[in-house]
């Protein structure tokens, strides 16, 4: 049967009523992929929730379909967001479908190329500020107080409602919650949404609760350090955030679930990023790899026990950030003349006979 998108499929768990337009790009229903090689290597039963398979290539579609539907229902004509890239791509796509204006405020030079390309293609009005995500978020929050433009960052509760569906999908696929969920943390909306989703399903169906283990990037680890970071830095631009809006909710999720908010270094992020692609054929953007980097870190520290059933959330598609992939490539393509024999010699010279 045709997948109908999140608003139809999870209607009974979402604030959907007869006036809510059931917009959809067929978001959700993303793969929960068992990783055979890494499971063996790490001594856990590892799955990744590959949310890079969503229509705009990130988990943001889950929350955006809900937030945009409610904006439309309430008669809004325009939506806006601050973004490190993925939120703006999702907002622009769903605004296009719902026929709303979309304004996005992004940190100049600090968003990955694929994400910028999407915002342009979907027709968003793009404002690039000489500041960071936190500055941009402050601006749109203030503007929301004095204008009719609907704010669709994750401070909009409908975003969290939509995003919690990822937890439902995991539980439906596994038959119960995993022992551990590892997840990147930026503005902390997604960890908040997952925890809400796991709790709601558990209340209704006794499906259990995972330990929630969230990972910030070391240079943007505000929650771990318990202080606002004015100039956050990390290669994982998606989570280059120094004052997460859902800070308290992330801490609550970790505490209530016997989990932890921790950080991973850029080196650990890039090592996990390469491992996923080269060992498993899974290409996720750098911020996403923070979940697997964190898993590796906490298996080594003993905080995650061998034999655990773990789901690591891969929040965005690797194609979002082609520059990081190319810059890291140890082997550059060999350029040869357009001559068959020369190409054969080169190719066979590398094959063991
Ligand atoms: N992974 C990716 C790929 C992201 O784009 C983000 C956030 C996160 C993880 C962190 O999720 O903020 O809910 O803790 N991106 C936002 C954006 C900030 O503007 O696209 P979070």
TrEMBL record:
Check the record and name the PROSITE patterns matching this protein: DEHYDRATASE_SER_THR
Catalysed reaction equations from the record: O-phospho-L-homoserine + H2O = L-threonine + phosphate
Record-level Gene Ontology MF annotations: L-serine ammonia-lyase activity; pyridoxal phosphate binding; threonine deaminase activity; threonine synthase activity
So which cofactors does this thing need?
pyridoxal 5'-phosphate
What InterPro entries does the database record attribute to this sequence?
Ser/Thr_Dehydratase, Ser/Thr_deHydtase_PyrdxlP-BS, Thr_synthase-like, Thr_Synthase_bac/arc, TrpB-like_PALP, TrpB-like_PALP_sf
Q: Name one GO biological process term.
A: L-threonine catabolic process
Q: Which UniProt keywords apply?
A: Amino-acid biosynthesis, Lyase, Pyridoxal phosphate, Threonine biosynthesis
Keyword Lyase in annotation:
yes
Q: What are the TM regions of this chain, as residue ranges?
A: none
Q: Which residues form the Tryptophan synthase beta chain-like PALP domain?
A: 23-316
Pathway(s) where this gene product acts: Amino-acid biosynthesis; L-threonine biosynthesis; L-threonine from L-aspartate: step 5/5
Where N6-(pyridoxal phosphate)lysine occurs, residue numbers? 60
Q: What is its EC number?
A: 4.2.3.1
Which amino acid positions bind pyridoxal 5'-phosphate, per UniProt?
86, 186-190, 315
Its EC top class is: lyase
Q: What function does the entry list?
A: Catalyzes the gamma-elimination of phosphate from L-phosphohomoserine and the beta-addition of water to produce L-threonine.
Family that this chain belongs to = Belongs to the threonine synthase family.
The protein here is known as Threonine synthase
